[in-house]
């Protein structure tokens, strides 16, 4: 029994079919609990007022925007090394979800920034690197769409993902060098000193868990769809031959 | 390898269009900017290094799809791939030819175009140097992009979408070096970082581009 057995599409679909409702339900549960808790049962910040509550969408979305790219990177590596089709399809499935998370993070950030910083947008290193990340997502998805042969598309997008990761990281530090920041430091970190206050902390953790589960559920669902779509194309092609 | 380089250079010069086109584009962009932002010397000299860098970058982008497209269509690329030369070497030579035909003229023309944008005096050597260091990175990154889109119909627009985000670090460091040079500030840090980006791209991307080409030619 090894992890690679789930690389078999049939087994993948069988297992995820069983897991998906649980993950989706717990994602929904976490999000409802976390957001309701965060929006209605935490006090307003003494300086930011109620706008602080956008943190429950902004931070988890930003976290998942980066983690989705990381997951695509790992899936691409698995495809390049071991050539499991499910892995390539999972990377493909994750891209639009990650792009959406990036947009959510950018949009909530702009909505928060308007009253707080007095501007919708600033060329701050964090904001800029997220915009660049979004461009990488766009290019990645466009390349998937553009290539007709599935295997070639998987190969090319995997290499683009690997090269893009290096350049995305490089851009992250380049923009740091290029402009001074307006964005505050990390809201969460493992050394407890600079975390947000405890009242905001717990609902935020629940929301992050909700976003992670939501991401997993969406990727499972989309990967299943991709597998079934490919199977359908194969059946159609076979019938046309017959 | 040398034969391939001479062939590519000769094709670029004799086949017409490709050689001067990037340069003409660079000129047009530079001439259009003052119409857009106004002719005040102070404003122009403030944005001159950035505009020249962006112009050079776009001119570079314009000629990228020529790197492999023609050879792919007439089958030369298949022949090259089966040649005893490793594909990585072919890609590197192609990138070098692209740099000589596109990057080098841009580097040489940039100081002259700086006059149009009233670039401050101390900026000229640094603009020249930063472009000289940065344009090889633009060429080799672009070669990777061209290899990604070589088999595609209407790959040109997709090529820009893929390549432009990859150009961000080069542009940041290059334009920063030119800007600091024009303002009389120390330029070592951005220039060294730019050289780092260039060296890294030159060392690694031919391998990625060759891997991509193998897939496209399969």
From TrEMBL, chain A:
Residues 12-183 form the Cytochrome c assembly protein domain. The chain crosses the membrane at residues 20-42, 54-81, 93-115, 127-147, 159-179, 199-221. GO terms for cellular component: plasma membrane. The keyword Ribosomal protein does not apply. It is a multi-pass membrane protein. InterPro entries: Cyt_c_assembly, Cyt_c_biogenesis_CcmC, Cyt_c_biogenesis_CcsA/CcmC. GO terms for biological process: cytochrome complex assembly. The keyword DNA repair does not apply. PANTHER family: CYTOCHROME B_B6 PROTEIN-RELATED (PTHR30071:SF1), HEME EXPORTER PROTEIN C (PTHR30071). Belongs to the CcmC/CycZ/HelC family. Required for the export of heme to the periplasm for the biogenesis of c-type cytochromes. This is Heme exporter protein C.
TrEMBL record, chain B:
Keywords: Cell inner membrane, Cell membrane, Cytochrome c-type biogenesis, Membrane, Transmembrane, Transmembrane helix, Transport. It comes from Roseivivax jejudonensis. It is found in: Cell inner membrane. One of its GO terms (biological process) is cytochrome c biosynthetic process. The lineage of its organism: Bacteria, Pseudomonadati, Pseudomonadota, Alphaproteobacteria, Rhodobacterales. It is a multi-pass membrane protein. This is Heme exporter protein B. Pfam families: CcmB. One of its GO terms (cellular component) is plasma membrane.
